[in-house]
Amino acid sequence: MLSEDFVSSILRQGKDIFIGYRTQGVDVLDAGTMTVRRRIRKGLENVDVSSLLVLGDGSVWAGTYGRGFVSLKKGSLSYQLDRKQQDDESPFPSPARMEDPAAVLKRLEKLGAGAHAGKSIVFRGEDWSTKGDWCGRYGLTRATLCAMNAPMNNSEFKAKQLPVRMETSAEDPKWKRVYPCYWIQGLMGLNRNQGDGLRWWVQSSNVAGNRNVLFDPSDSTRTEAEWDDHGEVYPSFVDGPGIWVAVEVPEGVHEIALYFYNPNGYLQHESRRDYVVEARRHPFSSSIQSLFDNKADIEIGNRTKKGKMLAASMEQWQSFPVEARTRVSRFAGSGVYKRFMCRKGGVYLFHVCRNGSFNTILNGVFINALLPLKMRTPDELPYYVDGLFAGIIPSPERVHSSVAGPEEKVLLNQLLTLQYHPRYVTPAGSSCLNRYILSSFREAVEGKKKSRCLEDWFQWEARIYSPDVRSSFDQTMAAAWDQCQIYYPDLRSRECVPNAPGTIPFSVNEVYLMDKLDIDWRQYRDDAEQPPVKSVQEMKKHLEHESQKKTTT
After folding, report:
1. pLDDT tens-digit series, residues 50-60
2. Based on the number of CB atoms within 10 Å of its own CB, is 210 exposed (0-12), middle (13-18) or buried (19 or more)?
């Protein structure tokens, strides 16, 4: 038998077949009998063999994750590449030619004309470029930053005026409850130990220099946090627990994106995080919001009467057909968004399968509905955070300070509509649409459109970053946080948001009192140009005196 089910690489050399594994080194098979001739372990103990290579001298090498280049078979010492052999070597491939956007669009329309209803959800593609700078690109309708405020809650963002629906009970007509039409819930999978549940894990706080970590506009920081299935306590051969994500959307086309980042993937065990994501649609029209929440996840782990009932319901989820799937691997150097497009309303179930990994983690879940062009570039971010205003979004126009004219607005409206048209929610349609956006961006860069605005917009939609875009994001979100502190004095206090930038060493009550006394709080910021008139301790005594005087009065 093979040493492991997880084959990471394979190579044939003559009568030998070299098979690399995630943890069990390399097996050498006889190509004629398909039996294991040799098992190579030395130098490959508990190491991921990511690639295999045979050189011209007959030597065989393994490329590994964490152990570098390892020799598997020695070659001829007399081997030497002569000039003719060098000339006969295959050249590097030339870059792909730029496609004509009009021709790609024509193919897309042809695909749409012949498309049928098809599946409810398809895989749109992946995005390795945006990283943690999600604001304005993902979650325009609703966003969940997993465990960002653990152990209390996640960081939740929602657009203004989200629709809701009313549900009544068939048994009791007087019973009514309001549910949001957009809902995101994380749950630990089954095959879990008793008492176990989904972990809300904070790896590190205030990671300002790592763009892979999701940005949190509610306190203008980056906190590396995730939902975690506690998989490290289960054997690698156990199926599960994994993570289930339930997402409900109303009727219409929506983009649902899941963000993954492996913060400690350079470590031996943590490097073996390699998931399969399966997307299903719940076939029943009745909502499951009233059944599954954080409390329900705990009850399933504790195996209460209700928990057993919910576990039986989750077991049924496995029987629903998988309509789309993708793999998440090698995501330590850069975080990745896995993007799905759904054509119908209802509940979608995303199963992040542990797949023999060290454990299963997920950093964020984002929902985009079609937003008109005029709503995509406002001065104010269309989000509420626990009922509070949250700042400004970065818009493509901010990079080159260009404004869309009438002709450009027609083209951009067409672009936004295309992405959310049910006809193109097919695997082939999604692929063709991605090529159309990329080819339009390349055309704009070459100057054929002669519009910096179009260049910005197509770059924005293609998820291509540049130093200018990064700088625009940082400046815009800094302005957003500055505006938040103006509107909400408690966000100025280091006691309230200890890791946020621009805070001052005063309590919330002291900050509010400073506001009432019309005292310039900015003089106590670390970036203040001039030292304050009074020291921090002197100001605290002054505020205490004013507070006592007010109480006496």
Report:
1. 999 998 888 99
2. middle
